[in-house]
């Protein structure tokens, strides 16, 4: 009965926690989809024949060296990374020729290069919600829009490109027009907004980018001469795509005209096109100058969610398990958790404040249910594993058991009196149906109170027969409790016997 009660209680608490911690749960969901995605990708790339062939890499290198100036600027180590990513990207997509266009390996390498250039600073470069890239020879008629397009990107699933215009984008690498980068930017953004796996750094800085992007977009509508080309006015997504074209093809003028917007874009993509000698890597110094804030409460979440969730669903159970063997009261455990949470908050406040402030509620929840629970668990574990020399064996004489009848209560009130020292939890004893005759496994007798003559009330008794039998067994016997002090001063029960 008692176990069922605890299961219900725990389930109820878990439900409350589930409802209050919707974001962390969502985070867990995204972590899982992420994991599944990477496992599937690994399987897929292992099964593709020749995935690691060096010959391919050399061929890719020649094409890229010839056509993509971004690639030419990279160091050898980064070129290898670039090639590897292209290889994986090609195998993760279907390239389909339309209107008679024949897709060859060169086409695939070059189109993938646009995606890899854009996401070179990110870890997840797959836009996994896009699986197909349709390649047209020239501008194509797109029925939903009723117009001719050079390229367009759906919110999910496919990207359309005119190969002629794609190549033109790379032929002049400074005219701030690049169809490949433009469409890949749409794919990157839509994949984040509508997909389930995306880059976490991109997600963290997306809000910081869009905040300023929206201000700049509104400003652009009023200005006659904006540094971005007119098409950026079409809508906020085009603004983003056009910004990226400008960003890669003329970063110097972008930075001079709108330095803050430039650095927000750098942070979002985790690269700086002006750092040509350092593989376009980004120094985070600009984040401080422009107060570029990371938003860890987006749906990709933050590592503190993991700690919090594991604390709630595993940490509490782990503490329950340990508490069963340690002589410690519930009040003390709660106090320990609170103290641990406060310690955690003091220790980590500066760190969180400096790097990314997740909000007061999240910070408290994290310290209480994450850090606090796990720190308490560590204290209890340490206490249990590392023992001191101090041991203590006490004998208790069960001396007298008598019954009273209270008016209006049909059940007898049973009082068990134990001389010398008494234990409160004897009241729990009769509820434990696992009690054996030799009393060796009486786990619930843990709360030993080293006080003289204490009377325990059995008035809540549900099954008088069990209690009666128990009374018979305990009467006149000696209760032996052997305990050892652990590292943190709590007693660990070693032996509990009625002899
Ligand atoms: Zn567009």
Descriptors:
single chain, 499 residues, 3 domains, 6-stranded antiparallel sheet, 4-stranded mixed sheet, 18 helices
Written description of the protein model:
The chain has 18 helices and 14 strands. The protein folds into 3 domains: 48-289, no CATH class; 302-385, no CATH class; 388-498, no CATH class. It has 499 residues and is of the alpha+beta class. A hairpin with a 6-residue loop joins strand 8 (387-405) and strand 9 (412-419). The model is unreliable at 401-467 (pLDDT under 50). Helix 5 crosses helix 6 (105-118) and helix 15 crosses helix 16 (360-385). The strands form 4 sheets. A 6-stranded antiparallel β-sheet has the order 7-14-13-8-9-12. 34% of the residues are buried. It has helices spanning 2-20, 22-47, 54-67, 69-73, 76-92, 105-118, 163-171, 179-194, 200-222, 236-249, 251-257, 259-269, 285-289, 303-323, 330-355, 360-385, 426-429, 464-474; strands at residues 94-97, 130-136, 140-142, 147-149, 151-153, 157-162, 326-327, 387-405, 412-419, 422-423, 448-449, 454-457, 478-486, 491-498. The protein binds zinc ion (ZN).
């Amino acid at each position: 009965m008692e176990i069922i009660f605890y299961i219900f209680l725990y389930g109820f608490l878990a439900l409350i926690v589930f409802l209050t911690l919707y974001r962390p749960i969502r985070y867990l969901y995204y972590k899982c989809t992420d994991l599944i995605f990477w496992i599937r990708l690994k399987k897929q790339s292992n099964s593709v024949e020749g995935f690691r062939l060096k010959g391919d890499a050399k061929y890719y290198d020649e094409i890229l060296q010839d056509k993509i100036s971004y690639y030419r600027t990279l160091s050898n180590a980064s070129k290898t990374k670039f090639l590897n990513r292209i290889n994986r990207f090609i195998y993760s997509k279907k390239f389909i020729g339309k209107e008679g266009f024949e897709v060859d390996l060169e086409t695939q390498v070059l189109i993938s290069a646009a995606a890899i250039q854009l996401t070179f600073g990110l870890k997840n470069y797959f836009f996994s919600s896009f699986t197909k890239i349709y390649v047209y020879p020239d501008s194509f008629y797109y029925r939903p829009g009723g117009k001719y397009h050079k390229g367009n990107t759906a919110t999910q699933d496919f990207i359309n490109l005119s190969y002629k215009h794609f190549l033109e984008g790379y032929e002049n690498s400074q005219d701030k027009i690049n169809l490949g980068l433009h469409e890949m930017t749409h794919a990157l953004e839509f994949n984040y907004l509508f997909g389930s796996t995306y880059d976490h750094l991109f997600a963290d800085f997306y809000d910081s980018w869009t905040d300023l992007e929206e201000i700049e977009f509104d400003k652009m509508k009023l200005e006659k001469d904006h540094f971005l080309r007119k098409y950026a006015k079409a809508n906020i997504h085009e603004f983003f795509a056009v910004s990226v074209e400008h960003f890669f093809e003329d970063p110097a003028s972008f930075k001079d005209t709108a330095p803050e917007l430039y650095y927000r874009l750098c942070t979002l993509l985790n690269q700086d096109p002006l750092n040509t000698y350092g593989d376009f890597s980004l120094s985070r110094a600009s984040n401080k100058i422009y107060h570029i804030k990371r938003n860890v409460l987006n749906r990709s979440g933050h590592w503190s969610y993991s700690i919090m969730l594991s604390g709630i669903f595993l940490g509490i159970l782990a503490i329950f398990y340990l508490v069963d063997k340690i002589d410690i009261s519930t009040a003390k455990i709660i106090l320990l958790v609170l103290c641990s949470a406060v310690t955690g908050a003091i220790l980590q406040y500066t760190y969180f404040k400096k790097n990314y402030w997740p909000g007061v509620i999240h910070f408290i929840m994290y310290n209480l249910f994450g850090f606090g629970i796990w720190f308490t668990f560590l204290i209890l574990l340490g206490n249990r594993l590392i023992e001191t020399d101090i041991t203590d064996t006490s004998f208790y004489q069960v001396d007298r058991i008598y019954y009273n009848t209270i008016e209006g209560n049909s059940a007898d009130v049973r009082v068990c009196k134990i001389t010398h020292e008494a234990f409160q939890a004897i009241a729990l004893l009769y509820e434990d149906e696992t009690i054996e005759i030799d009393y060796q496994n009486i786990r619930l007798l843990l709360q030993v109170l080293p006080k003289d003559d204490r009377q325990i009330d059995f008035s809540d008794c549900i099954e008088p027969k069990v209690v009666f039998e128990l009374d018979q067994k305990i009467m006149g016997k000696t209760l032996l409790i052997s305990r050892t002090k652990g590292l943190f001063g709590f007693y660990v029960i070693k032996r509990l016997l009625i002899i």
